[in-house]
């Protein structure tokens, strides 16, 4: 296991290095932030002074080497707009995004697994067909439209939930969380549901497909032949074996949820990383954009590593192959 882990860490380091080159060149080769940050009335001397202060007077490869040297020390640059460390700005917004992504992922699992299990065990029932039809809607409806409809129905017409913001927060482990207060929880419901809709549909279809496939396996037939109860057959022999693909996709989708929560955060004015990156793109705040993308890359790599390690816990064959 230690050799496998070391090999994966070396691969991860190579991926991070390659992605840093792609991200840096892709972001720093596009546009000119000086045109946005400097007043049009500024003379040429002031413009050159601003370009030198931002480090944009160096060739692109030298700018990357400077960035790489500082990144190894944990410095991803200073924001052009806020004049603060880009990493600090993102870490200030990260708890809000993580909270939203965790709420959406947990909600998708809590709702999607039972529905998918029912649809797989009783595929011809009316309830199963209704669940599968609902999952198709979850895949098809655009996130921005669903978010606007949620605001219109539950905030404007019914007045049950607040439409924007994060609400009251409470500190836990040095971070501010909204789910610890009633007001914050009410603000969290709609954006989390909006973000979870696609994931719920995905978990339902994965679970149903896994159940239908597993029910035909010989070990399930033997379990039934031994007279085991349907509950034990379902939750010991079927449920455990369908968790591997569900965990894999859910883990990867968690990374996607963090990375692509931009639309939801913009609609509900949720003060997370997604809203920060949109504002940074509008003013070409390159250090913040690069820092955000590199953090997302690190998150995806970490999630992939965790998912691979969970394989060995859930499936003994993975442990045997690793040996």
From TrEMBL:
TM ranges are 12-31, 100-121, 133-157, 177-198, 242-269, 289-314
Q: Supply the Pfam families for this chain.
A: BPD_transp_1, BPD_transp_1_N
Q: Which UniProt keywords apply?
A: Cell membrane, Membrane, Transmembrane, Transmembrane helix, Transport
User: Topology in the membrane?
Assistant: Multi-pass membrane protein
Protein's cellular compartments:
Cell membrane
Main localization (coarse): membrane
Segments forming domain ABC transmembrane type-1: 94-307
State the similarity comment. Belongs to the binding-protein-dependent transport system permease family.
Q: Please state what the protein is called.
A: ABC transporter permease
């Amino acid at each position: 296991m230690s050799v496998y882990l070391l090999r994966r860490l070396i691969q991860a380091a190579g991926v991070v290095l390659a992605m840093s080159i792609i991200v840096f060149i892709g972001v720093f080769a596009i546009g000119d932030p000086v045109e946005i940050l400097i007043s049009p009335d500024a003379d040429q001397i002031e413009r050159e002074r601003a370009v030198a202060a931002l480090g944009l007077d160096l060739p692109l490869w030298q700018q990357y080497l400077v960035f790489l040297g500082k990144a190894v020390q944990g410095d991803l640059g200073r924001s052009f707009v806020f004049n603060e460390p880009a990493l600090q700005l993102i870490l200030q917004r990260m708890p809000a995004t993580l909270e939203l992504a965790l709420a959406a992922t947990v909600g998708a699992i809590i709702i999607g697994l039972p529905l998918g299990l029912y649809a797989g065990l009783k595929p011809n029932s009316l309830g199963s067909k209704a669940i599968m039809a609902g999952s198709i809607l979850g895949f098809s409806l655009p996130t921005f439209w669903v978010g606007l409809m949620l605001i219109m129905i539950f905030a404007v017409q019914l007045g049950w939930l607040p439409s924007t913001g994060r609400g009251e927060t409470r500190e836990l482990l040095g971070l501010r969380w909204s789910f610890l207060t009633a007001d914050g929880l009410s603000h969290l419901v709609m954006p989390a549901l909006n973000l979870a809709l696609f994931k719920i549909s995905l978990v339902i279809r994965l679970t149903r497909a896994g159940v239908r496939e597993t029910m035909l396996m010989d070990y399930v037939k033997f379990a039934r032949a031994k007279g085991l109860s349907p509950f034990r057959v379902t939750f010991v022999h079927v449920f455990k074996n369908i968790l591997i693909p569900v965990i894999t996709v859910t883990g990867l989708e968690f990374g996607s949820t963090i990375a692509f929560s931009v639309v939801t955060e913009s609609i509900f004015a949720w003060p997370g990383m997604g809203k920060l990156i949109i504002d940074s793109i509008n003013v070409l705040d390159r250090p913040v954009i690069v820092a955000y993308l590199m953090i997302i890359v690190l998150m995806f790599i970490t999630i992939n590593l965790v998912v691979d390690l969970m394989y060995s816990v859930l499936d003994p064959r993975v442990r045997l192959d690793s040996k």
